[in-house]
Amino acid sequence: MNRAPRISFVSLGCPKALVDSERIVTRLRAEGYELAREHADADLAIVNTCGFLDSAQAESLAAIGAALAENGKVVVTGCMGAQPEQITAAYPNVLAVTGPQQYESVLAAVHQAAPPPHDPHIELIPPPQGIKLTPRHYAYLKISEGCNNRCTFCIIPKLRGDLASRPAADVLREAERLVDAGVKELLVISQDTSAYGTDLKYAASAWKGRAVRAKFLDLARELGEFGVWVRLHYVYPYPHVDEVIALMADGKVLPYLDVPFQHASPAVLRRMRRPAAQEETLERIRRWRAACPALTIRSTFIVGFPGETEEDFSALIDWLGAAELDRVGCFRYEPVAGAAANDLAAPVPEPLKAERQDRLMQRQQEISRRRLKRRIGARERVIIDEVEPARGGKRGAAKGRSKGDAPQIDGTVYVQSRRPLRVGEIATVKIERADAYDLYGTAVGY
């Protein structure tokens, strides 16, 4: 083969899986491989799977089948790879199946099917920040793997293992490389961000001549010194989360908390093995907002959990009305194989799950519309994600996000401007209109 081997890549699932994909792609490029947009143009395809829900597994299997049909040589990795028999039963002719974070096994399978053309240590050197699959202006920063919680609906510990935190200095070095490369927003992710460092007993590591503990608050404080947006995701509501609100009020990290509350009925939460003191949680939310009025709170909820009654669901709807969360996602319970919840109580019929999901999102839409309307007239900093092309001599609108909006899961700010805006630019926007999920305004500062 005279040219460098080409690899096509499909990355499915959550941002944590996307970071795994970035690490594999970085290694491949360092070894001289090229990337192909289409399976048919590649010498080999890699599919990074998601195995969290049955629907995600079905999507992963479909992606593997498509890669095999279009290419014929496929390496499978990711969460679903932790249960390889499911994949090989459907597709016995895949080249290899590896689990999540098994980068060396992926590379070994690629080497066997399409040997690298270059000495990886001499020929090609990847950029210091690695190869990113996100736009240049934001990046996911994964601070740990795995999880020590044993929520009954979740099989992530079976797929990714127990909590394994990175030393603080290691995380900060990666953050510094990303910022030096032009990243303006760091999205901090893990399976349980607020548990960061507990497995290390908060051991300190050397950073810039001082010791920094592997602790949620300490790491957030240090990340806030880089002068870029720092957004905290997957924050399990431990008591010490209260401490980070002061950093948000001081502008060190974004006033944004992604907290997976999951439900509000004490009975359901106990079956989920989640914190069940929702009245106390409401009081904490009030304290958070009192300390940091600009705080945006996002959460996700599961409806149709085994045994969920109409009374349980009504408790959730009432709690949402009291909490007035800014951003909410809602999922129907799926009885994923291996989840302890499947055997806890009678399943909720699928039509009832769908009805409850619709009712919850309708209620949240009312709340979201009301909260966004309050922001009309305000001037907000907005990071630009996309600029529409000009049409008919008229400048296209830009799409961006406020400090209260994470990419791909939250709302959009549509921005008109007297001069062209650039992707990655942060502009001051006067908010002029709002709907249920998005804001509309005009740039008044650059």
Topology of this protein?
Elements: E1 6-11, H1 15-30, E2 34-36, E3 44-49, H2 54-70, E4 74-78, H3 84-90, E5 96-97, H4 103-113, E6 138-142, E7 144-145, H5 156-160, E8 164-165, H6 168-180, E9 185-189, E10 204-207, E11 210-213, H7 216-223, E12 229-232, H8 245-249, E13 256-258, H9 266-272, H10 278-291, E14 296-303, H11 310-323, E15 327-332, H12 350-373, E16 379-387, E17 398-402, E18 413-416, E19 426-434, E20 439-445
Parallel strand pairs: 1-2, 1-3, 3-4, 4-5, 6-9, 9-12, 13-14, 14-15, 18-20
Antiparallel strand pairs: 7-8, 10-11, 16-17, 16-19, 17-18, 19-20
List keywords for this structure.
446 residues, alpha/beta, Rossmann fold, pyruvate-formate lyase- activating enzyme, OB fold (Dihydrolipoamide Acetyltransferase, E2P), 3 domains, 5-stranded mixed beta barrel, 32% helix, globular
Written account of the structure:
The protein is of the alpha/beta class and 446 residues long. The chain is 32% helix and 22% strand. The chain has twelve helices and 20 strands. The strands form six sheets. A five-stranded parallel β-sheet has the order 2-1-3-4-5, sandwiched between helices. A hairpin with a 2-residue loop joins strand 10 and strand 11. The termini are far apart. The model has no long low-confidence stretch (mean pLDDT 90).
Average pLDDT, to the nearest integer? 90
Q: Which sheet architecture does the biggest sheet show? A: 5 strands, parallel
* Portion of residues within helices: 25-40%
Order of neighbouring strands in the sheet with most strands: 2-1-3-4-5
Q: What is the CATH homologous superfamily assignment of the largest domain?
A: tm_1862 like domain
Q: Segments where pLDDT lies below 50 for 5+ residues? A: none
Ends distance: 51 Å
- Under the CATH scheme, which class of the largest domain? Alpha Beta
- Tell me the β content: 15-25%
- CATH architecture term of the largest domain: Alpha-Beta Horseshoe
- What global shape is seen? globular
Radius of gyration: 23 Å
